[in-house]
Amino acid sequence: MNLTYNQAYSELSKLVDQIEDDKIQLDTLAEKVKQAKELIDYCETRLRLIDKDVEVALVDKKPKKKGK
Amino acid sequence: MPKRLRLSELIGEIDDVIQDRFAGETFWITAEITDVKKQADKRWCFLKFIEKEGNLIIAEIKGVFWSNSYSSVLQFEKLSGQTFANGLEITCNVRVRFHKRFGIDLEVLEIDHTYALGKLEQEKQQTLDRLVKENPKVIRIVDGQYFTSNKSLELPIVLQRIALVTAPDSDGQRDFKQEITNNPYGYAFLVTEFLTQIQGDNSSNLIIQKLKQIEAEKENFDVVAIVRGGGSQTDFKPFDDYELSKYVASFPLPILTGIGHDRNTSIVDLMARQHKTPTKVAGTIVEHNFNFESEIIELKDRLLLTTERMIDKAKDNLLQMKRTVKAYSPLTILNKGYAIITSNDQIIIDPKDIKPNSEIKTILKNEVIHSTVTKKSKNELDL
Predict the structure, then answer these.
(1) B292, B315, B302, B298: which is closest to A33 by C-alpha?
(2) Strand, helix or coil at B111?
(3) Disulfide-capable partner of B244 in B106, B191, B204, B339 (CB 3.0 to 4.6 Å)?
C-alpha cells in the first residue's frame, strides 16, 4: 500500500459511508470492513514511523498480502 | 619671526574656546550612526554620527556612550527588536567634549526611544507598502490583514517531513526539535535542517539561499519552519528585509514562523503563518497531526458501531425467522392435536378429493392411522 494520507482518508470515509448505508449486503460487509481496517492500520502506523519503516511494519503484519 | 606656540598651548586655547561655548550645555541632535563598536564587557559604545546629502557625507563627528548611558543602547535593542548598528537614524541628547589628545567628540547622554522606534516603524511600513504595491498577485491587504499566496496554501492533512531553517546550536533549534521529538502521541517526523546565521548583516540573503535549496526539492517536504530563539539577543532586521519577505510570501510550501519576539511582529511573520516561538511551531505541527488521527479514530468508532449494529440486526432477523419457521412447522401443528390426512401420499387440502371407500392415512403426532372412508358429511364445527 502506497497511499497519501489524503487518499487513505477519503478511501476510508467512503468505505465507512458505504458500510453505514443500510442497503449494504451482509456478504460484502466483511470485505469492506477488512479494507477499512487496513486503511486505519496504515494511517496509524505511518503516523508513528517514517517512510521506510512503514513498509517493513505493514509487511511484517500481513506477510501474505504483498500484491495489494 | 612670528611667535611660536607649543602644540599644547594652541590646543589649550582651543579647549578654552570650546569650554566657554559648550561647557555644561547639552543638545538634542538627529543623525545617522556608523562605525558602531560596542564593548559590552566595559559597557562602552563608540560610533560616528554622520549627515549625508545624497551619497556624500557632509558632516561627521565621533560619538561615545560611556557606562552610565550604555543602558540606553540596550534598552533601544530591547524595545525595537533590532541591533543598535550602522545605518540607524537616532535622536539623542549629547554633550560636546574636547580632549587635548583625542580631540572633539559627542558624549551621548540618552537616546530618544520614541523617535528611534517611530523611525523604524516608518521604515517597516514603507517596506510593507512596497511589498503590496509591487507584488499585487502575491500580497494583498484586506482590513489591515496581510494575505499572501503562502498563507493561503492549504496545509497537507498530515505534516511529517519538515524543512527546518534555523541557526546552528541555537535555542530555537533545540526547543523545536525537543518539542517535535518528545511529542506525547509518539508521532514520527523527518526533520531536515537548513542551518544558517540568522542575525546580523547579510543574514536575510543567507536565509533566502537556504529557502532556495528547499524549493529545489520541495516535493520532499510538507512544511517549512523558520525558527529562532528569543532571549536578549534580538535582531529582527533580517526578517524585515524586502527580498526575503517577498520570497516568503510567494514560497510554494507552507511556512510556519517562530521568530520569538513578543512585542514585535516581523514582516516575514506577516507573510507566513506566525506562531511566535519555536516551541509553538512544533506544537502546532504535532496538534495538526493529532487532528488527523482524531478523524481516523472517529471513522474507526463509526465503523465498529455500524458493524456491531448490523451483526446484531442480522442475528435478530435470524432468530425471528427461526421462530416463524418453527411456528409453521407441521410438527408444531401435530403437537397441538391437529392431523394431516394423505391419500395416495398426497396431502389432502380439499376434502372433495376424497371419495367414500378410498384409503386414507391420518398422520398424528407419533402414529399414522390407516383407514377406509365410510361416509362424508358437512363440517359443523364452529371454529
Answers:
(1) B302
(2) strand
(3) B204
Report the length, in residues, of chain A: 68
Q: Report pLDDT digits (tens) over A2-30.
A: 788 999 999 999 999 888 886 777 778 88
Given CATH 3.30.70.20, say whether it is the number of domain B140-290: no
Mean per-residue pLDDT over chain B, rounded: 90
C-alpha cell belonging to residue A39: 486503511
Residues B268, B226 contacting (CB under 8 angstroms) = yes
- The set of cell numbers assigned to B61 is 563627528
CA-based R_g, chain A, Å: 13
The beta-carbon neighbor of B314 closest among A19, A26, A51 is: A26
CB contact under 8 A, A48 and B186: yes
Q: Are strands B44-53 and B89-99 parallel, antiparallel or unpaired?
A: unpaired
B202-239: b (≥16 Cβ within 10 Å) or e:
ebbebbbebbeebeeeeeebbbbbbbbbbeeebbbbbb
Query: Three cell numbers at B270?
Result: 506577516
Tell me which residue in A9, A20, A33 faces B157 most closely, judged by beta carbons: A9
Interface of A with B in 11-50 (CB under 8 A): 12-13, 15-16, 19-20, 24, 26, 29, 33, 36-37, 40, 43-44, 47-50
B289 within 8 A of B160, measured Cβ to Cβ: yes
Instruction: Check if the beta carbon of residue B15 is closer than 8 Å to that of residue B98.
Output: yes
Q: What is the pLDDT of residues B36-68, one digit of tens each?
A: 999 989 999 999 999 999 889 999 999 999 999
Which spans in B135-227 are helix H? 149-152, 171-181, 203-216
ipTM over 0.85: no
Architecture of domain B7-111 in this structure: Beta Barrel (2.40)
Residue A66 has pLDDT above 50, yes or no: no
pLDDT tens digit string along A41-61? 999 998 998 755 555 555 554
pTM above 0.95, yes or no: no
Domain boundaries, chain B: 7-111, 140-290, 332-372
Domain limits of chain A?
5-61
* pLDDT of amino acid B230: 59
